[in-house]
Amino acid sequence: MAEDKYKQEDLLKIEYCPPRKDWMDSKIDFEAKKGNWCYSAVPAAMEYLDLNTEMGKWQPHDKDWPLPDNWKEIIFEGLHDRLKKFRTLQIFMDICVRCGACADKCHFFIGSGDPKNMPVVRAELLRSVYRKEYTTAGKLLGKMVGARELTVDVLKEWFYYFFQCTECRRCSVFCPYGIDTAEITIIVRELLDLVGMNIDWITTPASNCFRTGNHLGIQPHGVLDSLEFAQEELEDITGLKIDLPVNRKGAEILFIAPSADYFANPHYFTLLGYLALFHEIGLDYTWSTFASEGGNFGLFHSHDMIKRLNAKMYMEADRLGVKWILGGECGHMWRVIHQYMHTMNGERQNGLEEPVSPITGTKFENAKATKMVHIAEFTADLIKNNKIKLDPSRNDHIIPTYHDSCNPARAMGLIEEPRYIINAVSNNFHEMPENTIREQTFCCGSGAGLGTDENMEMRLRGGLPRANAVKYVNEKHGVNQLLCMCAIDKATLPPLLEYWVPGVEVAGIHELVGNALIMEGAKERTVDLREEPMLGFDEESEKVSAATGEDTENV
Amino acid sequence: MKVGISLVVIVLLTAIALVGAGVGLNFVFGVIIPYAAIAIFLIGVVYRVLKWAKAPVPFRIPTTSGQQKSLDWIKNDNLESPHNTLGVIGRMLLEVLFFRSLFRNTKTELKDNSKLVYGSSKWLWAGGMAFHWSFLIIFLRHFKYFVQPTPKWVMLLQDVDSFFQIGLPIVYITDFLILAALTFLFLRRVMDSRLRYMSLLNDYFPLLLIIGIATTGVLMRYFIKVDIISIKELGTGLLSFHPILPEGVNPLFYLHFFYVCTLIAYFPFSKLMHMGGVFLSPTRNLANNNRAKRHINPWNPEVKVHTYQEYEEEFHDVMKAAGLPLDKE
Fold first, then answer.
1. What pLDDT, in 10s, does the model give residues A7-62?
2. What percent of chain A shows pLDDT beyond 70?
3. Across the interface, which of A101, A118, A290 has its CB nearest the CB of B105?
4. Minimal Cα distance from B111: which residue of A?
5. Phi first, then psi: what are they for A266, rounded to 5°?
6. Pairwise CA distance, residues B87 & B286, whole Å
7. Which of A49, A124, B86, B87 could form a disulfide with B78 if both were Cys (CB 3.0 to 4.6 A apart)?
């Protein structure tokens, strides 16, 4: 476990004052930096996706990296091509004034003090090469004007630091010109991928997803099994046998969630929440085993890969003949849906209609073109229109706070909807300090494909600002649950909190909705979706309240 | 080191100007260099901006800093997460005129080796605002040296700028603000270890050059009197393309003027282009209406996708066994 390997007092020795020496000539000692980088991509996954497999089997701590002979040529060709294709890249290369506003906004810098984790310097890693190649001053004056040759060491540095950025975009909120490090990171990762350099935690899920429709590579019957298991579990808890439509043609709505929701813990309880909600409102919908993944690791790989993996959403909606698509709780999935999907795959969108809630009649005009609605928007609308009955006291054993996931906050502006839902299903909601939530929210430290075990030290460091804010509300208000709407959060925050703030659990918003939801015909609820006793609803207190004549249903 | 080299360059520029003015190369410093600088500036800036503008914006990627427009009853923050053009204009105005994003700045500290705190940190914003606004006002005030008679709006601007004036000579607030702001920005760059780490010659040089411009300007205005009538003759002559070279102008003026010309000529090749670039930054100048309106990528590539048919073909048997519906039996 992380606790044994890393001592908190060691990780907390953070120096925010960088050394006086110049940053340009450094070499990364991968051996010494174990715990701060991820293993390389396996050739099989690269091959399945038709990517460059020339590097074969290698690891970052190998002394010599088996780069293709013409690697430099490949990189410059790729850079040249992207400068022509992306105005962002040109602008972001040219206009940074190094004012330093972004420096202490990055969770990796805050948690590590490594000066190259200051977003400005991370970008300079590429800018320096750009200046040498494209500017006269850079060619003539070199290092003095921040220009340097692209060498193997620079390439290794790129690998190290651009897989130490979670594309969370917090820095871009503070940048006076909106320079977006995520954009630079995506592009540098594309360049690295061109020479065959990538990490396993991104390429393997991407290739699984391409083949089976989900990151874990679960085949159709496995997806069905898992959903059926949830169906039975929900029956145990509520006494209700819910419908479970899978790959059903002619449904009104296709529901797509991140696959972790049906394979991982604590995501699974959010799944139970969705199922309970859809049953209760009688939604005409279907799951799909083909579009069994909302997440899209293409975002962490390349623009082309985003498009390749995202295409299935519209293709499947079209095949099943649904009217529109509803999407589950996930962060980067929603960056893709909101900012890329329609641009990339709009041509595949046949026969979909402008989304209208079949329960409330609300037109989701903000999604009229993409035709995909976020479940927080959908549920908030249900609650506002009094279409579901909720008993927030069923969540009284939970004192929640809410972690805005990076992408919903900074790529969508989905900020109030989740809070509205939380306040409707909980009596105890407490916000974390204002510089750590909403558009200023901190990343979990493990996004953008970096949530691997071998990267644990960097994850614990990068997650420190988030964990620290949780600790604050834990100590001040007794917060014992961190709510979030992101599958990566749900996977990576539990070990993070176990390390920094033991005792605080992680849950999805629809788990709490599922707890509070009063379902018609359901048996008396005494336990929540985790089958843990609810405060004031256990058998003991029922006896007491029955004796005193109180209404135990508490409706 | 980088500060040192920047200083050496400034000293060299100073020597060139003073020697040039001293040996009577007035035509070079009063006419040729200014016209050349302006030409370089115009061609360079246009070239740069066109180059940027020519590159497409394939994706709509605004950084949202506030609530999106979604359900009717949830208040949209149209300035931080604009859903229409009006909102985008508002957001850009706030950014360009008032440095909105910089105003958000915080300072992260680790207290007691265990608690992270984020204090408000408005100094950079204040310094930036003071510098840029003073620079703009001083720049506009200088129209009095190029246009005869002095336009009314320039007079008005002077009056406002010298609002706190008691007695003579007229003292402009912006003169002192800009010097104070520049001093702050420079000290920050050399004294803050993080700033020093990231700073390049490209950062120190323009800063020192502008300090040179402001200092020589202030010197001429308050301490070493120069012949303003002659300078105005030179200025109006330049602007009307009938350059006149007045006699007996103090070399200090030529130094000031040469610094300015250097800055103008250096502008298109430098980070100073942020002035134009900020307007073109796609994370700020696009509306957050992605799902309501399709954004077109002009080079949207064809990619290899995996179709349902391929999927069903591969998993046909297990799907059949599990009782999942199939397109092909």
1. 999 999 999 999 888 899 889 999 999 999 999 999 999 999 999 999 999 999 99
2. 96
3. A101
4. A12
5. -90, 15
6. 10
7. B87
3-state secondary structure of A527: strand
Residue type, A107: H
Q: How many domains does chain A divide into?
A: 2
Q: Is residue A42 part of a domain?
A: no
CB contact under 8 A, B324 and A221: yes
- Of A197, A225, A247, which marks where a domain is finished? A197
What band does A553 get if pLDDT is binned at 50, 70 and 90?
very low
Q: Cβ(B62)–Cβ(B288) under 8 Å?
A: yes
Chain A nearest C-alpha distance from B105 (Å): 6
Chains A and B form CB pairs within 8 A to the count of: 315
Start-to-end Cα distance in chain B: 75
- Do A79 and A214 lie in one domain? The reply is no
| Amino acid making up residue A519 | M
* Same-domain check for residues A225 and A172: no
Taking the CB of residue A543, how many other CB atoms lie within 10 A of it?
11
For residue B63, CA distances in Å to B68, B87, B217 come to 11, 14, 40
Q: Which CATH class is domain B2-322?
A: mainly alpha
Cα separation, A165 vs A160, whole angstroms: 9
Q: How far apart are CA A428 and CA A432, in angstroms?
A: 13
Q: How far is CA B70 from CA A38, A260, A373, A407, A507, in A?
A: 38, 27, 10, 16, 24
ipTM: 0.95
| pLDDT-derived band at B148, boundaries 50, 70, 90 | confident
What does the H/E/C string look like for B107-136? EEEEECCCEEEEEECCHHHHHHHHHHHHHH
**Cα(A26)–Cα(A171) distance, rounded to whole angstroms?**
24
How far apart (Å, rounded) are the C-alpha atoms in residues B260 and A283?
69
Are A258 and A118 found together in one domain? Answer: no
- Residue that terminates a domain, selected from A173, A197, A221: A197
The reply to whether A111 falls in a domain is yes
Radius of gyration for chain B, computed over Cα atoms and rounded to the nearest angstrom: 28
Nearest to A119 by CA among A56, A72, A182, A68: A182
Chain A residue with minimal CA distance to B67? A413
Are A144 and A180 members of one domain?
yes
Q: Is the pLDDT of residue A554 over 70?
A: no
How high is the pLDDT of residue A26? 84
A411, HSE (Cβ side, Cα atoms, 13 Å): 25
How far apart are alpha carbons B74 and B69 in whole angstroms? 8
The DSSP H or E segment spanning A234 is: helix A220-238
Q: Do A309 and A381 lie in a common domain? A: yes
Q: Which residues of A touch B308 (CB under 8 A)?
A: 290, 312, 315-316, 319
Tokens representing A290 are 């083909």
Digit-coded pLDDT (tens) for B169-226: 788 999 999 999 999 999 999 999 999 999 999 999 999 999 999 999 999 998 998 9
- A65 near A57, Cβ under 8 Å? no
Kindly state whether residue A469 falls inside one of the protein's structural domains: yes
| Count of C-beta atoms within a 10 Å radius of residue B252 | 19
Q: Which of A97, A102, A466 to mutate to test the interface with B (most CBs of B within 10 A)?
A: A97
Domain that holds residue A74: 2-30+52-197
Average of per-residue pLDDT values in chain A: 95
Please enumerate in sequence order all residues whose Cβ is within 8 A of that of A159, keeping only pairs 6 or more positions apart, or say none. Answer: A37, A60, A192, A197
A117 and A220 assigned to the same domain: no
Q: Is residue A313 part of a domain?
A: yes
- Main-chain phi, psi angles of A403, to 5 degrees: -100, 110
* pLDDT computed for residue B301 by the predictor: 97
- Where along chain B do its domains lie? 2-322
Residues A340 and A434 in one domain: yes
Q: Are residues A227 and A359 in the same domain?
A: yes
Q: B322 and A464: CB-CB below 8 Å?
A: no
